[in-house]
UniProtKB/TrEMBL annotation:
The gene is Cdh15. GO terms for biological process: adherens junction organization; calcium-dependent cell-cell adhesion via plasma membrane cell adhesion molecules; cell migration; cell morphogenesis; cell-cell adhesion mediated by cadherin; cell-cell junction assembly; homophilic cell adhesion via plasma membrane adhesion molecules. This is CAD15 protein. It is a single-pass type I membrane protein. It is found in: Cell membrane.
Amino acid sequence: RQHEAPRRVKRAWVIPPISVSENHKRIPHLLVQIKSDKQQPGGVIYSIKGPGVDEEPLGIFSIDKFSGKVFLNAMLDREEHDRYRVRMILGAPPWRPQPDPDPPALHPQLRAFALDLGGVTLEDPTDLEIIVVDQNDNRPLFRQDVFTGRVLEGAEPGTCVMTVDATDADDPDTDNAALRYSILEQGAAGMFSINATTGEICTARPGLDRETMGVYNLTVQAADMSGDGLTTTAVAVIYLEDINDNPPEFTKEEFSMEVEEQAAGVDVGKVFVHDKDLAGSPSWLAKFTILEGDPEGAFAIRTDPHTNDGVLSVVKPLDHEVRDRFELTVSVQNERPLEPSAPASPRALATVRVRVRDVNEAPAFRENPRRISVLEGTPPGTPITTYTATDPDTHQIQTLSYALLYDPADWLQLDPHAGTVRTKRELLHPSAFLQGGWYIALVLARDDAEPPLSATGTLSIEILEVNDHAPQLQPPAGVLCGRPGRGGTLLLGATDDDRPPHGAPFHFQLSPQHPQLARNWSIARFNGEGQPGRGGCCTEAQSLPPPLSLLPAQLHPAPAIAPCPPCLPVPTRVSPCPRVPAVLAALGAARVRGRRRALRKGLLQRSRDDMRDNILNYDEQGGGEEDQDAYDINQLRHPELFSPRAKPPLRRDAPLSSGTPMAPRKLPSSPSDIEDFINEGLEAADSDPSVPPYDTALIYDYEGSGSVASPLSSIVSSLTDEDQDYDYLSEWGPRFRRLADLYG
């Protein structure tokens, strides 16, 4: 439409905004005619500049330079440019492009210019605003093609599920962009509604049941012009989430199964259930319980997580002979409790019948191991026990047979039908096959089924000791030396091949058939702590009988109920003349006593002389003060003056020798050779076959009793470390350096 010419106010152009509809189809279209009141004799030239003219978008607007008419040359789109501004210039001076003093406008500016024929602007530039009027040329658009929402089944009406929304590119201030929402299709139930203004979808009525319909597909629409204009559609998908509103149910009321007896840890079968709730969800998972029919707890039932069925298994072995059928009552329910809104229903029950099949079972020894006792030396062929097994298959006719599976000494024989065990040879001590007096054998029992089964029984036989060996004196004779009128002592020993309680300790006594022996002889236990089967006692002469006497004695094992005091095996022969070991022992005692006395009296002075391996003869004491005359000290000092004694008989355990008499020993020529002399004497005593057994004490003489002298322990107790000065030990040489460190 054509507008009135602009009015000039204070020499400035005032042009009202020009409105033009978008999508105008009549092109070119006159928008306005501009006139300047500064008419010149030569006329006025009009021009416009800006977007739509000489700037992008080009060629939309134009002006007639002589008439000042502004034309629209192309269709406008409000969604691209909703307005344009044109600047006009009118003047006389030659026109030159000048920088725009005004700041950029919010919209593209269209500038108009008025010039005279010489190119001089007649008016200040002014803006021409062109407003594009909106038309409803854009449909609404949903932000997505498919909307997804979830809601619990059984939700109350008015429960909101989700919101759909759309946009419109038209002018939001007009009805062209005023949108309204609606549900075009959702099925016949009409379970959902939508807010026309906001697009929020909510439940419209009760009764949503996932098991009936788990997914709802809604077609929603958005329309502009407040619902009367252009429209568009989208899809809203609503999923119903499951709740536990359906209990599990058995597919049938009775189930039948079979299982072999003696089987444990195996599955018997399945019971099948159905649950309408969502498979795999907690509302679907079933839990089974055995209510009746299994008082012993022989069965167990679990849930198969994949199928939700119940799996019945055996946890304890079943015995067909005891019970061949079971009737179980099984219940099922969900792991998660039912929702309060779910209809009440009783718990589902089913009957499971299990038949136990009979199978061949191995025989069994009721007493395993069997322990018996047998006397040693039992004659061959003596029955010692009957060791049989039982067959648990009472419903099957079977025969058991027996065999010896392990008999390391081949001592036994077994009846293969009756299971009677007899001795095959004498059972004697000692044997490498006995362990602590017990003999172990294994018996095999086997049935005649196909295939046959067997069992092994352990037979433990205790071999009881029998007193079948008499004790023996070791050696059977002894020699005692002494002086007339003086007493002496003879040591006796004994051995016995029997084991306790028929061996040591022993009881010694003088023969009752010779009572006169009690006037001169008495027997007392000396020591008994030795090797098993050995014992010893002392025979003491009050006054020696004639030079050659026979002493009858009796020996038998002591009763087990009255054990004797311990004894130590000792030699049964004492030489009339002390041999080298006895001499050296006496010598050692004299040396110790003499050195103690020298220390007390200060006779051993500090000196730098080498005191090693020297014997200082300070005194001689012999045995005790009361039997000084029983010793001949000359034998110690001059043994070469005395004739050698007769060779005594050999003992039983002495090593074999050539029988060659020992050569005379060379006496020490100086005190430094005393160590060699002692070692040679010790070796001679060890190799002498006439001395007592190796594990006995060597008794050289008996000192008697009732000595008036104080015991040696009194010397040690009276001579304390506080009374002694041991500094002199450091002067005795390197041999005494250790003692000097300890006592110095």
